[in-house]
Specification:
The complex is a heterotrimer.
Chain A: H1 2-12, H2 16-56, E1 59-63, H3 66-69, H4 79-87, E2 92-106, E3 111-119, H5 121-124, H6 130-133, E4 134-137, E5 147-151, H7 152-158, E6 165-171, E7 178-189, H8 194-199, E8 200-204, H9 205-212, E9 220-225, H10 228-232, H11 237-241, E10 247-251, H12 252-255, H13 257-295, H14 297-305, H15 310-346, E11 354-355, E12 358-359, H16 370-396, H17 400-405
Parallel strand pairs in A: 3-8, 5-7
Antiparallel strand pairs in A: 1-9, 1-10, 2-3, 2-6, 2-9, 4-7, 5-8, 6-7, 11-12
Chain B: H1 2-13, H2 15-55, E1 58-62, H3 78-86, E2 91-106, E3 109-118, H4 120-127, E4 133-136, E5 146-150, H5 151-157, E6 164-170, E7 176-187, H6 192-195, E8 198-202, H7 203-209, E9 218-223, H8 229-240, E10 245-249, H9 250-253, H10 255-292, H11 295-303, H12 308-343, E11 346-354, E12 357-362, H13 368-394, H14 398-403
Parallel strand pairs in B: 3-8, 5-7
Antiparallel strand pairs in B: 1-9, 1-10, 2-3, 2-6, 2-9, 4-7, 5-8, 6-7, 11-12
Chain C: H1 2-12, H2 30-43, E1 48-58, E2 63-73, E3 77-84, E4 92-96, E5 99-104, E6 109-113, H3 129-133, H4 138-141, E7 142-146, E8 156-163, E9 173-179, E10 184-191, E11 197-209, E12 212-222, E13 229-239, H5 250-254
Antiparallel strand pairs in C: 1-2, 1-13, 2-3, 3-4, 4-5, 5-6, 7-8, 8-9, 9-10, 10-11, 11-12, 12-13
The chains are: A alpha+beta, B alpha+beta, C alpha+beta.
């Protein structure tokens, strides 16, 4: 075995330039594959994070009619029960409660329709990034029940600043009676997401519950898993377990189906390009192996003449293909690592761009995984061997006399 | 020329080498052409579907409307504008639209709606409105007090075709606009948020309701060719020549979609660059091989008196011919394969629906881009790399060359 | 149309009107001021009322003058029917506490207005939703004091009213100019908390309506929007009249006068 390897390597290196050029071509292909895969993983994580970490969470529980009607009365059923179960749920890292209603907010200069959200600042902080998006004022420091936080676009429309007085009007549960309260702007945030900056206002949960007349109830429970993969898993039993008693539990994939679809699309598109890549690379492999074969045609003739069996000839070529593959893999892996590493340091700027209803909020960083450096190289190795079969079989079929007769 | 004839014969003498070289060249060309065709095809398809579905390629509004929509920022005498536009080169169709906010009521249920006045014939030619109807039917040609609801709106109002619906709004003269309509259909536009409040009326009915005479708020224009949209926009601007009108291509009014697409495209270009790089390397390798292997041969030629410039020309000519043949085969093959895929496409693992249109396949497309870029790459890299060995070959000292091998 | 109704609403609800001081500013004392404010709070209140109102709305795009009949009981029930212009004749609105219905003769339809919709501004309304649901009394919910102003006129007193900190109103303060002794307002100026004048309401044409002296004309002019104005004129106004309970019913919405 070792003999063959040695032979193969020596043969390959007889024409260093050609071997290295071919090795580089294949190596670049591998590096490209590694980099693209890392980028796609990074993009996926970034988008999921942008969607879920900023506000939406990885899973939500509502009254099963709530998402369709947004009626104030449709609060989560059996709330105390749901909460105690969630607290004992191993895979849930954090959860928080929210009320959500349609409201009107007025300032001296203007009025606007908004979504009024009542939050529990302490637990909310662990699930959404509102606290990080504050650009003026603070995120519910202290416990002034008249604190309110709005987006910068809304502040512009209402022509208000920190400390200004606004009035929020909502309709109460069941009676439809109007309820009005005065608030003072205690914080202004900028999410760079149109809907949030323009049409949302946050107040403290007890305040909103009081205004809405819903007692201790809430409209929405938002959850985050310890393992992000769970959020994406639609078959998770958890969804069923909490979709009882007139509630529904959904993962973010069901709340943002376009995002899911967009991923599938880009993944598939990459497969296609990957295939094409392999096609190009295989040409290079065949090319190199055949060239090397012709160069040594006389030699091969001699080999056959002295008794090497066809199988042995094929094996020779295959080992060369293997050696070429190893060389390429080394080149490719190093190149791939360098390029990916550099990009993880500088990142790619996609911020502000909206895609499938989600806005990129941070720089995109590729994510390196073991799989890229193990699975893909193995794939390349096998592929090279596979492609090498063609010249190998050709070599096996050589008749000694013909081979020795070939000249340049 | 003699050189060419000799070159041609030389190529065919060494069949295997030639085949290998040509294979690499046209194979690489076809594959990179496929990549480009694919990328362009997919993107253009997405853009086409996205714009064609509802927004159109070019939109005309009264100045300031997009910034701050208002009932009063209108385009008057829209049919004149429409007829002028439809005669412009590159315009396929146009359709007028009117927008206002209102309160609609079916039975006991009331909900806020967005009133959208559309002209059925124009709308059907432009955005295939009738395909969006999921229940009932689309408008009659003449205004007949018919209404169509968006899917979400119909759900909120518990309404179905056959129901009576009342809508209240404010007229442009300040009066209380209200009237009764019959729901004849329910539509799904793909934009779920919009469907939540969409209330479609025949344009004339809407104009009458809102006391808007012959005015509209938006004119949507469909161009023949997606790539020509910027030119068509410019032509429209010049023909209409009206400072009160704002004419914008989709890249402007659908800015966020556009930037997202561009960003995605850039990513794909990087991938394509890699493909082309590998192709170039492959060609390099092959050509280098082909030329360098024949050192002895060139030695003989020199020995019998061929002058260096002639040898140089010979080498270049051989490579050029192989490149030419490869390009011809490659382009023919690319056109064929891309064409097949543009008609049939590859089925997606997970089909999805957007805008009432189902995305089921990936399609490629045949375009100039996918042909000249790979062709240029192959030819240029081949010729470029052949220069060095050509020079080397030309400088061969006959004795030394004859001695090798 | 909603805004028209809302506009009417606000006038027929407790419109805080400040009475004047019976003594000169320097000599006024707290008790007097409180008494005056209370009188004004009560000025427009009655067990019941019937009025014929003309409302002129001016916006940069159009101008309309509506003529309507209105009935109220206390603060909770209101019924209005539009007489002119012809296009809107017969349109009626009923309000019982927080619920509101519209009747549109053209479509012969009674429509209940969802609470959320009661807030949004449709027409060139110069009144905020503040005015609609405001059930605040100047007496209870504001603090007030006499102030001096530049260009003070003879026989006019000026009162500055500041809302209680947590009152759901957006104003920083309201300054009222009223005729001494008569409890009749001349103007009311609304300021935001930064002291910017946001809107002005002018009162004029004082008439005797059933024993009470009330300005028949109110003109509301927003200070931050160009070309907008609303003028209300009471053509008839009767207090404590007998009103048939049936008036405040859905059936009555459809009846033709």
């Amino acid at each position: 075995m070792r003999l063959f390897i040695k032979l193969a390597v020596r043969n390959l290196f007889r024409n260093k330039r050609r071997t290295f050029i071919a090795g580089s071509a294949i190596g670049i292909g591998l590096a490209a594959l590694i980099f693209t895969d890392a980028l796609i993983i990074g993009m996926e994580q970034n988008m999921i994070a942008s969607a879920t970490e900023s506000y939406m969470g990885e899973g939500q529980i509502h009254h099963h009619d709530f998402r369709a009607s947004y009626a104030v009365e449709e609060t989560v059923n059996n709330l105390p029960d749901v909460i105690s179960r969630l607290e004992n749920e191993d895979m849930i890292e954090n959860f928080t409660r929210r009320t959500m209603t349609f409201a009107m907010i007025t300032s001296p200069a203007n009025l606007s329709a908004v979504s009024m959200v009542g939050i529990d600042p302490a637990t909310e902080k662990k699930l959404s990034q509102i606290d990080e998006a504050i650009i003026e004022g603070n995120y519910f420091d202290g416990n002034n029940k008249r604190d309110i936080i709005i987006g910068n676009k809304l502040a512009e429309i209402l022509e208000v600043d920190l400390g200004d007085r606004v009035v929020m009007t909502v309709a109460q549960a069941h009676s439809g009676d109007l309820s009005q309260e005065m608030f003072r702007i205690s914080g202004i945030y900028h999410f760079n997401i149109k809907a949030m900056d323009r049409a949302m206002a946050f107040i403290r949960l007890p305040q909103s519950q009081q205004m809405l007349g819903v007692g201790d109830n809430v409209h929405e429970i938002v959850m985050k898993f310890k393992d992000g993969g769970n959020g994406r898993d639609r078959s998770l039993p958890l969804w069923e377990r909490y979709s009882t008693d007139g509630n529904e539990a959904v993962s973010w994939t069901m709340l943002l189906p376009e995002l899911d679809a967009a991923f599938e699309m880009s993944q598939f598109a990459t497969y296609i390009v990957g295939l094409i890549l392999f096609g190009v690379v295989s040409l290079g492999i065949i090319n190199t192996l055949f060239m090397s074969l012709h160069e040594r045609m006389f030699e091969f003739g001699v080999l056959r003449a002295v008794g090497t069996r066809p199988y042995g000839m094929a094996r020779l070529i295959l080992f060369e293909a293997g050696a070429l593959a190893v060389l390429s893999i080394v080149i490719g892996a190093i190149l791939g690592y360098i390029i990916t590493y550099i990009t993880t340091q500088i990142g790619i700027d996609y911020t502000g761009i909206e895609f499938s209803g989600v806005t990129f909020r941070e720089l995109l960083y590729p994510v390196m995984t073991i799989k890229q450096f193990v699975e893909y190289p193995i794939l390349v190795f096998l592929f090279t061997i596979l492609v090498g079969l063609y010249p190998a079989i050709y070599a096996a079929r050589l008749s000694p006399a013909q081979a020795m007769r070939r000249s340049f | 020329m003699l050189t060419l004839r000799i070159a041609w014969r030389n190529i065919f003498r060494q069949k295997r080498r030639t085949v290998l070289t040509v294979l690499t060249m046209f194979g690489g060309l076809t594959l990179s052409s496929l990549s480009i065709g694919w990328a362009d095809g997919t993107y253009n398809r997405i853009i086409e579907m996205f714009t064609r579905n509802r927004l159109g390629h070019v939109q005309i509004h009264a100045r300031g409307y997009l910034d701050k929509p208002s009932l009063y920022r209108k385009i008057e005498d829209y049919s004149i504008v429409g007829h002028t536009v439809e005669k412009i080169e590159g315009v396929t169709a146009w359709t007028p639209r009117l927008y206002s906010a209102g309160l609609a009521s079916v039975g006991e249920k009331t909900a806020g709606v967005q009133i959208i006045g559309i002209e059925p014939t124009c709308e059907s030619k432009s955005t295939h409105f009738e395909k969006k109807i999921i229940k009932g039917r689309s408008f009659s040609e003449a205004p007949s007090h018919e209404a169509i609801l968006g899917k979400g709106a119909a759900r909120t109002l518990h309404a179905s075709p056959g129901d009576e619906i009342v809508v209240v709004s404010q007229g442009a003269d300040g009066s209380i606009a209200n009237d009764l309509y019959e729901i004849i259909g329910i539509a799904e536009s793909g934009d779920a948020a919009m469907d939540q409040s969409a209330f479609y009326l025949h344009l004339s009915d809407a104009q009458e309701l809102l006391v808007l005479g012959n005015s509209i708020h938006e004119m949507v224009i469909i161009a023949d060719d997606l790539d020509a949209v910027p030119e068509v926009t410019e032509r429209i601007r010049q023909k209409l020549d009206d400072p009160d009108l704002e004419i914008a291509p989709w890249q402007e009014f659908a800015r966020s979609f556009y930037t997202a697409m561009e960003a995605d495209k850039k990513g794909t270009w990087v991938m394509l660059f890699v493909v082309i790089l590998i192709v170039a390397i492959g060609v390099l390798n092959t050509v280098l091989m082909t030329v360098l292997e024949r050192t002895r041969e060139y030695g003989v030629l020199r020995a019998v008196g061929t002058r260096p410039p002639q040898i140089f020309r010979l080498v270049i000519a051989e490579v050029a011919m192989m490149a030419a043949v490869s390009v011809v085969i490659g382009i023919a093959l690319s056109i064929f394969i891309n064409y097949m895929f543009s008609i049939h496409g590859i089925p997606m693992p997970m089909a999805f629906t957007y805008g009432g249109i189902e995305f089921t396949h990936y399609y490629s497309e045949v375009n100039a881009h996918s042909l000249y870029v790979p062709a240029a790459t192959v030819v240029i890299s081949a010729l470029f790399i052949s220069v060095f060995p050509a020079i080397k070959a030309a400088r061969i000292a006959p004795a030394k060359a004859l001695r090798s091998h | 149309m909603k805004i028209t109704i809302i506009t009417i609403m606000c006038w027929l609800l407790a419109m805080p009107v400040i009475s004047s001081q019976s003594e000169s500013p320097a000599g006024a004392d707290d008790a007097e001021v409180r008494k005056i404010i209370r009188e004004i709070d009560e000025l427009y209140r009655s067990e019941s009322s019937y009025s014929v109102i003309e409302m002129e709305i001016v916006t940069p795009h159009w101008q309309r003058t509506l003529n309507m009949d209105g009935w109220t009981i206390g603060m909770d029930k209101t019924f209005i029917r539009i007489n002119e212009p012809k296009k809107d004749k017969g349109v009626a609105t009923l309000r019982i506490e927080n619920e509101m219905w519209n009747y549109l003769p053209k479509t012969n339809k009674v429509m209940k207005i969802p609470p959320s919709m009661m807030m949004s501004s449709w027409m060139g309304s110069d009144f905020t939703n503040d005015d609609l649901v405001k059930e605040f009394s100047l007496f209870e919910d504001y603090s007030y004091e006499l102030i001096e102003v530049e260009d003070a006129r003879e026989g006019i007193i000026y009162v500055n009213c500041i809302p209680r900190e947590d009152l759901p109103v957006v104003w920083g303060n309201i300054v009222i100019a009223a005729i001494e002794d008569k409890y009749i307002p001349i103007w009311m100026k609304y300021y935001d908390e930064d002291g910017k004048l946001m809107r002005v309401c002018n009162y004029s044409d004082v008439k005797n309506f059933g024993g009470r002296l009330i300005p028949a004309v109110m003109e509301m002019i927003p200070q931050t929007k160009e070309g907008h104005k609303t003028v209300i004129r009471y053509l008839e106004l009767e207090f404590d009249v007998e009103i048939d309970g049936d008036t405040f019913s859905l059936r009555n919405l459809r009846a033709n006068k």
